[in-house]
Amino acid sequence: MKHLYKFILLFLVVIIFFVLNLLLGTVKIPVDAILSILVGDDTVSEIWRNIILSSRVPQALTATVAGAGLAVSGLQMQTVFRNPLAGPSVLGISNGASLGVAFVVLLSGSLGGVALSRLGYLGDAAMSVAAIVGALAVMALILYVSQKVKGNVTLLIIGVMIGYLATAVIGVLKFFSAEEDVKAYVVWGLGSFARVSGDQMMLFVLLMTGLLPLSMLLCKTMNILLLGDWYASNLGLNLRRARLLTISCSGILVAIVTAYCGPIMFIGLAVPHLCRALLQTSDHRILMPATMLTGAGLALACNLVARMPGFEGALPVNSVTALVGAPIIAGVLFRRHQAVE
After folding, report:
1. What is the CA radius of gyration of the chain?
2. pTM above 0.70?
3. What pLDDT sits at residue 230?
4. What is the C-alpha to C-alpha distance for residues 64 and 79, in angstroms, rounded to an integer?
5. Which of 183, 196, 191, 195 is closest to 109 using CA atoms?
6. Which of 27, 72, 95, 249 could make a disulfide contact with 163, Cβ separation 3.0–4.6 Å?
7. Which spans in the chain are helix H?
8. Cα–Cα distance between 123 and 104 in angstroms, integer?
9. SS3 state at 85
10. Residue 290 CB coordination number (10 Å)
11. For position 132, what pLDDT does the model report?
């Protein structure tokens, strides 16, 4: 119960940033008009209705569940590898998604003669499918390797090498691709919560709201993993199966978020550190829900900054997450270092 007020505070922060995402933007819309639109009033300006229902609400919902998913994935990776610098992309799963999109986007113009970026909704759907296939393919490879190696460090290094290999292949594809295809791929790689809308947004939100509660089932396993391999084995934990389940859960979350939003950096790396510093605990029964709320709030804040009034269009989300996430990580690690001394 001692953490209850902190959870209430985190929940209120998420609500506040969600509301601000609806209120603020390049077009100023009165609060009463927004409320009327949300309750289904058809008398409000059609332009305002389109902005709220087709842009701001989908962006806010996407940012909420994507931020929560990436934060949980980062917490799982940092726990299973016992490494403070482990994040959702540490095993190359995000690179696998990028490689899948690269094959579809960069080869479409060369082989088919039509840039995928010109195909509208069909092109977006193709990129989402390619990202999921690429991410799951790399995750399957990682899971196979995890059956063959015992050490977490070895698996971590192999994952990093897979990421480098995927990046190298992407570089070769870029070199031989048309300029328009390269531009479409680069835009996808900048990350955005705005490309998900309509039925895609509903499917994405449903998938994430189903997977996030399931990740709570691993809290006890992750708490035991913190004790170390020797103690965990003595307590009866099957280390191989526990590592397999945790990596699978983290990988699926990353794959889905990357497929719909592009590779979003720093949220998964920064949020677990922020929650540990805020709650002063390593109990995953507390950390997991706190991480979900903090990840959702941080993603909403970054999305708000990315499309603040005064900017033409929207800033790349990855630029904002890096500006916010890097100081958080540096500050938390610096404070931890001072505490040790």
Report:
1. 21
2. yes
3. 81
4. 23
5. 183
6. 95
7. 4-23, 31-38, 46-51, 57-81, 93-107, 121-148, 152-175, 179-189, 198-215, 219-225, 229-234, 239-261, 267-279, 284-306, 317-340
8. 9
9. coil
10. 24
11. 80
Residue given tokens 């579809």 in the structure block: 104
Q: What is the pLDDT of residues 247-271, one digit of tens each?
A: 888 888 888 888 888 888 888 888 9
- In the structure encoding, which two tokens stand for residue 203, read together? 């499917």
Cβ proximity of 106 and 127 under 8 Å: no
Q: Which token pair is 158?
A: 């192999």
Q: HSE, CB side, 13 Å, CA atoms: give it for residue 8.
A: 5
Residue 209 in tokens: 């709201």
Q: Under 8 Å CB-to-CB from 25, ≥6 apart: which residues? A: 51, 55, 56, 307, 309
Q: Within the chain, which residues score under 70 in pLDDT?
A: 1, 108-125, 150-152, 309-314, 332-333, 336-341
> For residues 59 and 198, is the Cβ–Cβ distance under 8 A?
no
- The structure tokens 């510093």 sit at 277
Give me the phi and psi of 265, to 5 degrees please. -95, 160
pLDDT recorded at residue 28: 83
Q: What would the two tokens of residue 169 be? A: 């292949």
Residues 48-70 as b/e (b if ≥16 CB within 10 A, e otherwise) read: bbebbeeebbbbbbbbbbbbbbb
Helix orientation angle between 267-279 and 284-306, rounded to the nearest 10 degrees:
130
**Residue 1 corresponds to which amino acid?**
M
CB–CB of 36/43 below 8 Å? yes
Asked if residues 146 and 155 have their Cβ atoms less than 8 Å apart, the reply is yes
CA neighbor of 133 nearest in space, from 164, 98, 177, 108: 98
